[in-house]
Specification:
Blueprint lengths: L1 E4 L14 H4 L4 E4 L7 H8 L4 E4 L8 H4 L7 E4 L9 H6 L4 E3 L5 H17 L2 H9 L17 E5 L3 H12 L3 E5 L5 H6 L3 E2 L2 H7 L2 E4 L13 H5 L6 E4 L8 H10 L4 E4 L19 E3 L8 H19 L14
Parallel strand pairs: 1-2, 1-3, 3-4, 4-5, 6-7, 6-9, 7-8, 9-10, 10-11, 11-12
Helix pairs in contact: 5-7
């Protein structure tokens, strides 16, 4: 039985769980540390494997790939969902998808969002580069005090509500909007409800906390970005495709918004020659929202549990139960 662990970029998967539980049962484990360059490469390298362990949505798993993996019998997924995984195509082949709990992704993503907000507001990235280059204040902006500024939250779910509570602790004026948000729900969280246009036009910090769907894909495009203040900061720790990336690059070059702090991108890993990497008015992190030692232990530990249960003939936490019919 051959098992593949995909996209272990940080080389932490094997140290985060007791994989010997599976090796002792004859499972041969291989780890892929780099992202596949194409669907063809993924199909060629994964063809020998019976079990594939996915880390969130790092590698897309569409029908076109599934149909080229003749030996595949089980897919495990860290987290509770992945929009890029075709669980129906797997179910048609009687291949179960066993998922894990979401972990503390809400807390870690909210904390990272605030790290990005503070870093952008105080020009910390340039300050750090200056210090490592032996300089002091040269080239570093004056920074912005957050107290008294307006924080605009796009999506007041679990993560958005966490971000709102911290914003109030900072002394910010907190407002929110989403397609499903009501004035009553906003008020219950101690947040003002604004329509999308007013939120974007009048917020000093706009932070996105939505699930990617057909309704939210491209939600912020050229016209929306153009309404933002030239001093505003746009933060995205949700999914890159919620913001039109090409429009964002153009908007940042034009100075509206004045700064973007991003953890997520339309294509991940972000290509080395991507335009965002060349801009001075961006703060970039490599999709660290859910990445923490605690989450990795939960994700990979639960993955081992799921594979062991499947080997015992008792698949657990199945995302596509029709596969077991």
């Amino acid at each position: 039985m051959k098992l593949a662990i995909l996209d272990d970029y940080q080389r932490l998967a094997l140290a985060s769980a007791d994989w010997e539980r599976l090796r002792s049962r004859g499972v041969e484990i291989s780890v892929f540390h780099e992202a596949f360059a194409s669907l063809d490469e993924a199909a060629a390298k994964l063809a020998p494997f019976d079990i594939v362990c996915l880390m969130r949505e790092r590698t897309a798993f569409p029908r076109a790939l599934i149909e080229r993996l003749p030996k595949l019998k089980l897919v495990t997924l860290t987290g509770a969902r992945a929009a890029s995984l075709d669980s129906q195509a797997l179910a048609e082949r009687r291949i179960p998808v066993c998922h894990t709990r979401g972990g503390r992704g809400g807390a870690s993503t909210a904390e990272l969002a605030w790290g990005l907000i503070v870093a952008a507001a105080r020009d910390m990235e340039k300050g750090m580069r200056a210090m490592r280059a032996g300089r002091w204040h040269e080239g570093v902006g004056a920074g912005t005090v957050l107290e008294g500024k307006r924080l605009g939250i796009v999506g007041l779910g679990g993560i958005g509500a966490r971000v709102a509570s911290v914003g109030k602790a900072f002394g910010m004026d907190v407002a929110a909007w989403s397609q499903n948000l009501t004035r009553e729900k906003a008020a219950a969280n101690g947040v003002e409800y604004l329509d999308k246009g007013e939120l974007l036009a009048n917020s000093d910090v706009v932070t996105i906390h939505l699930v990617l769907s057909e309704r939210t894909r491209g939600l912020l495009g050229r016209s929306e970005l153009a309404t933002m203040k030239p001093t505003a900061i746009l933060v995205n720790t949700s999914r890159g495709s919620i913001v039109d990336e090409a429009a964002l690059v153009a908007a940042l070059k034009a100075g509206r918004p004045g700064h973007a702090a991003l953890d997520v991108y339309e294509r991940e890993p972000l290509p080395a020659d991507h335009s965002l990497r060349a801009l001075e008015n961006v703060t970039l992190t490599p999709h660290l929202g859910y990445v923490s030692a605690e989450n990795y232990r939960l994700f990979y530990g639960s993955t081992v549990d799921n594979v062991a249960a499947w080997l015992d003939g008792k698949p657990a936490n199945v995302l596509n139960p029709e596969a077991l019919a």
